[in-house]
């Protein structure tokens, strides 16, 4: 007679305990990440969100849908570049706090701190974008994308910051530990709709939080900050997709204008951003963590150059690369492909080392600081956004 699990009680006991252990693991992860998951908006904050033109069917939506190809993504996971993570330490520049005591001669200076964290000095104001000082872009301290180098300046060594902007709530852009450490600052936090609930939950006073819908603007100590449209998504847990808005930002000073895209796919309203708010002395454009399976979530290098032209930028700073491994491509590929596309388009690109400051009107000799590694070209791995049409032809990708 063939044995079954019914005739072997030990099998049932093992399965039972495996189920218990799995449940405990899930509970443990929820407890570990609970604070990092944030808090959903309610009350007057939620009511304001629901009045937004972007709020549809119980969540925020893009005008153009996001394409996702699950099976293509699975294939990509089987072909990750052997150079997706640096094999040697990166040549970073430690940030000396004394540099901020001397204002930039042009009125505009930027220090790239890696990924999408930039300290922008513009016409007497200081703006910090998407600050992430955590070791991992994750709700957990033991798993998730790990940064390739330590923060280049301590949070408490930063000069006084006028404005902190958060483009969206993904973990590589919104870090709860970093935000909590800022609760005693005299800084104004400017964020898209809904994210204020997270900031308040982590200790930021409500009177220092300004939430904006797309195209809304605010003034902070004389600097105008505009929340611009973006084509992306939001969510920090399993069931909160689209519960907070995402966006980019324009910083409009007396002499200089800067555009930060946040995370975004290419979309037609970039032309309107340029017409209404440009031209920009500097664009800080998301260029990394792309793949053809999700072409509408991130622009990719070639389309970032197109976006720079659409918003009427003068100098382009490629961001969203150089700190975390968030995709399948080689870690130097984003900047290599940006430079190739920019060379064809006649676009000026700034390539500072992480921690290095530069003035867009006086770039000087930034040069190549990354190693010469194999990378796939746009022909080999194209990234082309879907559901996008333009009045004028977009420059063809190679």
From TrEMBL:
Source organism, top-level taxon: Bacteria
Signal peptide: none
Organism, as annotated: Chondromyces crocatus
Positions of region (Disordered): 42-62
One Pfam family here: Lactamase_B_2
InterPro entries on file: Metallo-B-lactamas, RibonucZ/Hydroxyglut_hydro
Basic and acidic residues bias spans: 42-53
The Metallo-beta-lactamase domain, residue ranges: 125-321
Record GO cellular component, one term: cytoplasm
Protein name stated in the entry: Membrane protein
């Amino acid at each position: 007679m063939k044995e079954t699990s019914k005739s072997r009680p030990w099998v049932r006991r093992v399965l039972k305990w495996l189920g218990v252990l799995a449940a405990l693991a899930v509970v443990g992860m929820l407890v570990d990440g609970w604070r990092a998951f944030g808090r959903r908006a309610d009350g007057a904050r939620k009511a304001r969100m629901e009045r937004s033109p972007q709020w549809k069917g119980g969540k925020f939506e893009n005008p153009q849908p996001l394409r996702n190809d699950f099976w293509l993504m699975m294939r990509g996971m089987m072909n990750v570049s052997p150079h997706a993570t640096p094999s040697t330490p990166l040549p970073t520049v430690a940030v000396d706090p004394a540099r901020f005591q001397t204002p930039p001669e042009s009125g505009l200076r930027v220090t790239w701190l890696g990924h999408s964290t930039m300290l922008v000095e513009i016409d007497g104001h200081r703006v910090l974008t998407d600050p992430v000082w955590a070791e991992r872009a994750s709700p957990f301290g033991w798993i998730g994308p790990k940064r390739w180098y330590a923060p280049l300046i301590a949070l408490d060594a930063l000069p006084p910051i006028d404005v902190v902007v958060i483009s969206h709530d993904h973990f590589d852009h919104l870090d709860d530990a970093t935000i909590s450490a800022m609760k005693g600052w005299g800084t104004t936090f400017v964020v898209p709709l809904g994210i204020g609930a997270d900031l308040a939950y982590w200790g930021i006073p409500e009177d220092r939080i300004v939430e904006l819908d797309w195209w809304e603007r605010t003034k902070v100590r004389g600097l105008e900050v505009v929340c611009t449209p973006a084509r992306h998504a939001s969510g920090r847990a399993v069931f909160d997709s689209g519960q907070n808005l995402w966006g980019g930002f324009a910083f409009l000073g007396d002499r200089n204008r800067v555009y930060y895209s946040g995370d975004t796919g290419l979309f037609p309203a970039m032309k309107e951003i340029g017409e209404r708010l440009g031209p920009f002395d500097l664009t800080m454009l998301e260029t990394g963590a792309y793949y053809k399976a999700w072409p509408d979530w991130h622009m990719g290098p070639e389309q970032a150059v197109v976006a720079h032209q659409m918003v009427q930028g003068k100098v382009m700073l490629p961001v969203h690369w150089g700190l975390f491994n968030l995709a399948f491509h080689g870690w130097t590929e984003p900047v290599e492909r940006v430079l190739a596309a920019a060379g064809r388009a006649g676009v000026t690109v700034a390539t500072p080392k992480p921690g290095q400051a530069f003035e867009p009107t006086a770039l000087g000799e930034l040069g190549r600081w990354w190693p010469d590694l194999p990378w796939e070209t746009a022909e080999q791995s194209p990234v082309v956004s879907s559901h996008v049409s333009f009045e004028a032809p977009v420059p063809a990708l190679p």
